[in-house]
Amino acid sequence: MKPLAEHIRAITPREAFRPVVMFVPWIVCVLVALGMHTLAPLVVDDYWVNVLRRIGVFIVAAVSLNIVNGFTGQFSMGHAGFMAIGAYIGGGVTYYGSLMLHGSVGDPSFQTHGVLLMLGGVAAAGCVAAGAGYVVGLPSLRLRGDYLAIVTLGFGEIIRVLLELTTKQLYTREEVTLGALFKLPLNGPTGFERIPGYASVFWIFLFASITCLIAYRVKQSSSGRAFLSIREDEIAARAMGVNLTKYKVRAFVLAAFFGGVAGALYAHTGVNPSPTDAGFQRSFDIIIMVVLGGLGSISGSVLAAIILIALPELLRDLQQYRLIVYALLLIIMMLVRPQGLFGVREIWDFFGKKNRPTSKEESNP
Amino acid sequence: MADFFQTLIATIAVGSLYALVALGYTLVYGILKFINFAHSDIFVLGAWTTFAGSTVFLTKFGYEPEQSPWWLGVCVLLLAIFVCGLTGYLIERFAYRPLRKAPRLNVLITAIGVSLLLQNVGQLPGLALVRGPERVVTKPADQLTDREKSTNPEIAGDTATIREPGEALATLPFGSSPKRAPTILPDAVLNETVVASGTSKGGAKRGVIVLDQAIELVPDRGYRLEIARTIDGQPRRESLNLAVEPGKYEAGVELATQPRRNPADLDGARYTLVRDPLVPIRLLDVLIVASSLVLMAGLQVLVFRTKLGSAMRAVSFNVDTASLMGINVNFVISFTFVLGTALAAAAAFLYAMKYPSLQQPASGVWVLLGLKAFVAAVVGGIGNVRGAVLGGFLIAGIEFFGARYISTELRDVYVFGLLIVVLLVRPNGLLGSAVREKV
Q1: Where does the pLDDT of residue A352 fall: very low under 50, low under 70, confident under 90, or very high at 90 and above?
Q2: A145 contacts in chain B (CB < 8 Å)
Q3: Beta partners for B104?
Q4: For the residues B240-252, what does the mean pLDDT come to?
Q5: Could you tell me which chain A residue has the CA closest to the CA of B428?
Q6: Facing residue for B113 by CB, picked from A146, A153, A334
Q7: Are A55 and A275 in contact (CB under 8 A)?
Q8: Which of B110, B113, B155 is nearest to B137 (CA)?
């Protein structure tokens, strides 16, 4: 007699449901975003809703940096550079788009189109940042780990300097011409202002959950396994036929894409993106999130982003000690628990089945 | 042409500073195989120690920076080296040594942590080491504000005297505002020409000297008058700028100086007319280059001619074998680390003399400076002592010549651009040798 499980498998029309099942995670993403959007204003006040939006943005940033720093073990220190590219592209598309199509920026009657513009801006930001990631990554990923750190750090600084050289922002419809836009009117060192805050909790958490979903699927895919193998041992990975440069660049471009998305969302949360956002201090902030959460753990990055954004808000009076605490946290973390909060595992690996396969993190102090 | 030589001089002076810092990176990388991100913060510590040390000394003993004794510079330099060396030792001992067997990424992250820690501890509001003169305000007792009442004014009759402590001139930690370090090394332009000297006689107007010989002032060059005269029996020297057109002047002609609010009476004063050189060579630059060269030569001797140096090279080559050969690995690593930080401290002292406006410790300026020095080490071939020196001059050259002849704003871009180009063409740096990775 056949086992019961096989009977059930035989009668379940899996193939028929396949298209539906395929969309379930995406639907869950939308539901999460919708839930956050409706619940957040009921539970907390406006100030904390804003904090929540920043948390969402940094979840996208930290999870995307985790793809290259955590999964692949290539230490990129220029993630803020990609974020800044994204912020300026995304903000620029929305700002100059609404100026050209509507004649003014942030008009409530233009909201629907504005949000569409923002989505276009996010897509454009991701693509441009990914392109920049390809250009930076292809040469520098041939280098050994710490050289890569320096090159990417230098890249962030170059982006900062170049953003400082952009021309003054244009404020009226008449000034905006194709020629004027080619001079990159992004307001130089003062920062790009008056970008409408279209990125509501819904959009931010939609992108945050999509980023997590894609990062998770990448981690489970053959590419993801190649990433992890590079991280564990480059020579062994190469011996197994993994094309090192190809997979490193792939991880880097993917991370840059979502870095750009994070930046574009950040630009729409009512802040003025400025060239210092491309600097190494912002990069360090994101790196700390990734390291704290665990290099390679998506849920760890999410949790670390929540902690590291919310904690300073709770400890507002101790603002000047914030970075000291961060620094001590990093050092102690490396001395005591070098793999971060979760290591490469996810939060649910700690519950559920005990004998779940984990990486060799335990043998890797 | 003058521009070219001026830029060259700046390149050599700043390049030798970059080279000193790059040597620190390269020494640590050579022996521990990781980028010591905290190195630039050691440099900052050195610069601020220089500031604090010289300020404390000058205030306590009532010297003006110009008349500070010659040995003060040496003392402050030694102080900076001591403070930085001690900090470097502590960092190595407590942050890096426990991680010696850990993956490189972890050490790199720890280094970032140490760097952030030093920066942010460094700019905490500090306790005053020395204060300026006490401020005493006297006002009618009934006009005191609440804030003034809280400072326990001394009230005598109707008037109240408020004593406020003077402004903190130097604090520890260093606080979060930029400060100006006193220049305690001698500085003068070495190659200026004396055009004429003599005594001014019979001038009726103030602020005017009367020539007692014929002179010629050529266009496009600056002129300066060194005046020596006696006021109330006290000899006094000062330096004035001329306010006349170039041309020939006969004896007996009056030469006006730059107008001031209260022009001096120059009748009977001894004057020396000095022409600025086309390419000024400053004593300070010469001192910087000379002391850097001495340090580099000393390091060269230490690494390649002494027993300790061969121990360092052995540890850098293979730690395990070195320890089997009876080398005290922990001592050698600590020593190398302290040596690197001492070089950074010396560079920081010289830097604070050349560029006295110090930014607050966590300012991005410092990190950028450290990065450039690191780029110098990488360009020269990290782990290679001569390469770091070459890289230092190369980076300074591309930065200054690029800034002078192409565009000032892009100076950081050239440096990182050079880094990327060099790494693409020669991934081990210009003088670095290729290392085969063994399985």
Answers
A1: low
A2: 104-105, 108
A3: none
A4: 80
A5: A143
A6: A334
A7: no
A8: B155
Nearest residue, CB atoms, B371 vs list A143, A154, A291: A154
B98 chain-A contacts, CB cut-off 8 A = 335
Closest C-alpha among B315, B285, B303, B310 to residue B185? B285
Select, from the ranges B178-182, B192-196, B360-364, the one with the highest average predicted confidence (pLDDT). B178-182
pLDDT bracket for residue B204 (50, 70, 90): low
CA pair distance A180, A169, nearest whole angstrom:
10
Pairwise CB contact (< 8 Å): A324 & B364 = no
Say whether B109 and A291 touch across the interface (CB within 8 A): yes
Q: Which amino acid is at B272?
A: T
- A277 has a pLDDT exceeding 80: yes
- Average pLDDT for chain B: 87
Q: What are phi and psi of B71, to 5 degrees?
A: -80, -10
Contact A338 B102 (CB under 8 A): yes
Domain ranges in chain B?
2-127+281-425, 133-166, 193-275
CA distance A356 to chain B (A): 25
Best residue of A140, A146, A335 to probe chain B, by most B CBs closer than 10 Å:
A146
Q: Which of the four pLDDT bands, split at 50, 70 and 90, describes residue B439?
A: low
pLDDT digits (tens, 9 = 90+) for A205-262: 999 999 999 999 999 999 999 999 998 888 899 999 999 989 999 999 999 999 999 9
Q: What is the pLDDT of residue B22?
A: 95
Asked whether the predicted pLDDT for residue B253 surpasses 70, the reply is yes
DSSP code at position A359? -
Give the predicted TM-score (pTM) of the model: 0.85
For residue A359, the model assigns a pLDDT of: 47
Q: What is the ipTM of this complex?
A: 0.79
- Structural domains of chain A, with CATH: 26-280 (1.10.3470)
The yes or no reply on domain B2-127+281-425 and CATH 1.10.3470 is yes
Q: How far is B246 from chain A (nearest CA, A)?
A: 40
3-state secondary structure chain B: CHHHHHHHHHHHHHHHHHHHHHHHHHHHHHHHCCCCCCHHHHHHHHHHHHHHHHHHHHHHHCCCHHHCCHHHHHHHHHHHHHHHHHHHHHHHHHHHHHHCCCCHHHHHHHHHHHHHHHHHHHCCCCEEEEECCCEEEEEEHHHCCHHHHCCCCEEECCEEEEEECCCEEEEECCCCCCEECCCCCCCCECCCEEEEEEECCCCCCCCEEECCCCEEECCCCCEEEEEEEEECCEEEEEEEEECCCCEEECCCCEEEECCCCCCCCCCCCEEEEEECCCCCCEHHHHHHHHHHHHHHHHHHHHHHHCHHHHHHHHHHHCHHHHHHCCCCHHHHHHHHHHHHHHHHHHHHHHHHHHCCEECCCCCHHHHHHHHHHHHHHHHHCCCCHHHHHHHHHHHHHHHHHHHHHCCCCCHHHHHHHHHHHHHHHCCCCCCCCCCCCCC
Give me the residue label for tokens 């109330």.
Answer: B232
A276 to chain B nearest CA, in Å? 10
- Say yes or no for a CB contact (<8 Å) between B439 and A235: yes
Q: What is the pLDDT of residue A181?
A: 86
